[in-house]
Design a protein that fits this description.
By secondary structure, this protein is α+β, with helices and mostly antiparallel strands. It is built from eight helices and 15 strands.
């Protein structure tokens, strides 16, 4: 879920919402180095969760919160043009799954922003190309891609550049499956809405070929957007994996301070 560089005030109800979710791994995008993201991530750390979040140097980034044991994968994110905009780890599950969360830069018509986005997407595709086939087959890629596919409805002609559409061609070539399209074929979802009410599908989860038949459910969750915890819907997927109970952290659900109730 994109947390919209949460403020300290908005981080409190956002924490409560996230803490109540059943997912074992949470991917957050548009994190920041500010008080809101720090407050949110520190609560999960104190509860015993594993948290990955890079130093951002004033930029926006990505974070991973895990209630199961994972191994950090700096070797993957280091290959990206902006490493702080991604986070990666491999789960201690059967089979092991590599999770890669990304926050693709946004851009308007400014040449520098377009170049930054183009370079990041190219480095992401290159990272996927370099990934061993077995690991790519057991990959979960997710986050705010800040692009839409060619068949998006509405299509918004003239807004998107070829290199942005090309991302989805690269994901298909890597045998990565769009989990929403798998669960609800033909259903156009929107995860972010502009000021005029125009809907865009910016947030995605893709899985490798060995995980397709392990999908048990998932979809878009609009509660955080409707409750104004953020301006994005969340997207989730349930995968059928075996977890050794020794690798599950024996911690209570994370809760915000009692003064908030």
């Amino acid at each position: 879920m994109n947390v919209q560089a949460t403020s300290r005030r908005r981080a409190e109800p956002l924490l409560r919402w996230l803490a109540d979710r059943p997912e074992q791994i949470l991917l957050l995008t548009e994190t920041s180095g500010g008080e809101g993201s720090t407050y949110l991530l520190d609560h999960f750390r104190r509860a015993g969760c594993q948290v990955q979040h890079r130093h951002l140097n004033g930029d926006r980034g990505a974070a991973m919160i895990s209630r199961i044991a994972v191994t950090d994968r700096l070797d993957i994110t280091a290959q990206l043009s902006i490493p702080g905009r991604a986070v990666a780890a491999t789960t201690h599950t059967d089979p092991p799954v590599t999770v890669l969360g990304v926050y693709v830069p946004s851009s308007d018509r400014a040449p520098a922003k377009v170049a930054r986005k183009r370079t990041f997407l190219a480095s992401l595709v290159d990272t996927l190309d370099r990934m061993p086939d077995h690991e790519k087959a057991h990959l979960v890629l997710g986050g705010d891609y800040n692009v839409i596919p060619r068949d998006h409805q509405p299509p918004y002609p003239g807004v998107w550049r070829p290199f942005e559409y090309d991302l989805f061609d690269a994901l298909a070539a890597a045998n990565l499956t769009d989990t929403h399209a798998r669960l609800a074929p033909g259903n156009q979802a929107h995860s972010w809405y502009g000021r005029n009410g125009n809907g865009y599908r910016f947030d995605y989860l893709h899985v490798g070929r060995e995980l397709r038949d392990r999908i048990r459910g998932g979809g878009y969750l609009h509660e955080p957007r409707e409750q104004r915890l953020t301006d994005h819907a969340a997207v989730t997927v349930d995968l059928d994996l075996t977890v050794d109970m020794h690798d599950v952290f024996a911690v209570p659900p994370v809760a915000a301070p009692q003064t908030l109730f």
